[in-house]
Amino acid sequence: MNARQGGRLFDTVNMIILFLLVLLCLAPFVHIIAISLSSTRAINSGEVSLLPIGLNWNSYKQVITDMSMIKSLGFTVLLTVLFTVFCMTMSLAAAYPLSKMKLKGRKFVMFFIIITMFFSGGIIPEYILVRNLHILDSIWALVLPGLISPFYLIILITFIQNIPDSLEESAEIDGSSYFRSLFSLIIPLSMPVIATLSLFYAVGRWNGFQDTLMYITSPELYPLQLKLYQLVQNNMVSDLMQLEGANGTQLLQPESLKAASVIFATVPILLVYPWLQRYFVNGVMLGAVKG
Amino acid sequence: MNATRYIRRYWQLYALLVLPVLYFAIFKYGPMYGVIIAFKDFNFFQGINGSKWIGFDAFREVFAMRDFYKTLRNTLMLNLLDLIVSFPAPLFIAIMLYELRTAWFRKLSQTILYIPHFISWIIIGGIAYQVFGTQSGMLNNIITSFGFDAVPFLTNKSYWLITYLAIGVWQSAGWGTIIYLAALTGLNRELFEAAEVDGAGRMRRIWSITLPSLKPTIVTLLIINIGHMISIGFDRPYIIGNTTVREYSDVLSTFVYRVGLESGQYTLATVVGLFQAVVGLVFVLGSNYVSKKLADQSIL
């Protein structure tokens, strides 16, 4: 076998393995879609694997006519947008002054911020703080504590520092103020990094779970993840109960409904992801350059 | 420039900093101050300052708890196993993607392999119960259809460990390739051509060119991972775990949550959190020191 043939064999094997990995990556999603579209009888008899059996859309009809689910989706969208806007406003307000090396006190403020990357009080003191601020069980408990990530802030500062000073100097000669220069120069020029960081904040908030579990008690303020968690937990209980031979299955919702709810919560991410993939990847690169 | 003129010129920059600095003071330094309840018999009625000092009593109590050592062991065990299983996976996949000649297939593979990273642990948990469940999970349907006994993937602690690790690989392997692929874009393709002229096969080129060029990235990532040995996320063990496998699934983060917020023993939970933060800091600083010595590169 010569090198050329060896190379071709390598390419074929490589492609086949990657193809299998891609299938492995997708299989769980395909399975859960199949479950969501199958009849309860087929699911209980264990026939459903990757293709729906007894195809029907009832579970989806039930999910989208469930007002509490729609409200939860609406609340999650509101929460995510509010959080992201607040995060970026605060991050930009911090990053612009901190990008100026000559600013007096800059080093102190940077030190003040970077310390928080290495040491935190932990979740119990955080919980006590949120409770003492009287924002427990409100949207603010999910917005305020996570406003600025020092790591993302450093990425933003580095980006702004790479904008040529001459641009800003010429703007200042025209009698422009720092506020003006921030809005008319720095923000427009930072759009790529703003888009990337916004995405990271937004996805983090959308998928965030622990703080919703800790801070939210009113069902009308349940974000999607918390709402879904109850279904998942339910799922687990049913698995355990069946294991122990108890007959608790009648009380539980059909598997297809749980599967449809999972899909319902996944679709928003899957819809935006392919279009925004570029920005996500950029974000990792920005972080890597820094690290 | 005197002080008044300096302020007049730069006040806008300082004004911008007011809210962010306040944010860090309240939401980051506030909880740091709150850590003092580790040394107090805290209750909400008397508040942080009003509660009685108890010195190191709570520390003695925590260090005498069996569950504390169990969760500490589990945290280190899960992180270590994760490192062994999940760390090499992205490296292999990145090299395979890099070697792929068909551009469209490479792009498509990347897009799909990245997806699990964007799925929340709640959703992954929901999917996991459908796939690994003992009664009606997809895998067990297949296993039993061949006449074998169902495997308790989620309810036997040893099987659960494998399930936990497998889900981790599934979730992180694709996304983890990005950093390696980024490092490889800087690699000079001429090296490969030269090697080919010298008669080196594909495997040989991977071994002698691609892998060595990734060495700094691998070392840095490895050190960062070791630095985070004691910190563990909450969502994954909490959601993938359940009461039947608590012997393995109970880790420091879930322990803090259970003791603190479910049982209301705020002081004890704060002690555990403080222990984790201090040891974590030592680990991170230590790994940075090693990184400086080894790779002449600070990871902080």
UniProtKB/TrEMBL annotation, chain A:
This is Carbohydrate ABC transporter permease. InterPro entries: MetI-like (IPR000515), MetI-like_sf (IPR035906). PANTHER family: ABC TRANSPORTER PERMEASE PROTEIN MG189-RELATED-RELATED, POLYGALACTURONAN_RHAMNOGALACTURONAN TRANSPORT SYSTEM PERMEASE PROTEIN YTCP. GO terms for biological process: transmembrane transport. Its main location: membrane. The chain crosses the membrane at residues 12-37, 73-96, 108-128, 140-160, 181-203, 259-276. It comes from Cohnella fermenti. It comes from the Bacteria. Belongs to the binding-protein-dependent transport system permease family. It is a multi-pass membrane protein. Keywords: Cell membrane, Membrane, Transmembrane, Transmembrane helix, Transport. One of its GO terms (cellular component) is plasma membrane. It is found in: Cell membrane. Residues 73-275 form the ABC transmembrane type-1 domain.
From TrEMBL, chain B:
GO terms for cellular component: plasma membrane. GO terms for biological process: transmembrane transport. PROSITE patterns: ABC_TM1. Keywords: Cell membrane, Membrane, Transmembrane, Transmembrane helix, Transport. Residues 72-287 form the ABC transmembrane type-1 domain. InterPro entries: MetI-like (IPR000515), MetI-like_sf (IPR035906), UgpAE/MalFG_permease (IPR050809). It is found in: Cell membrane. The keyword 4Fe-4S does not apply. It is a multi-pass membrane protein. The chain crosses the membrane at residues 12-30, 76-100, 112-132, 159-183, 213-234, 266-290. CDD domains: TM_PBP2. Signal peptide: none annotated. It holds the Pfam family BPD_transp_1. The keyword Cytoplasm does not apply. Belongs to the binding-protein-dependent transport system permease family. This is Sugar ABC transporter permease. It comes from Cohnella fermenti.
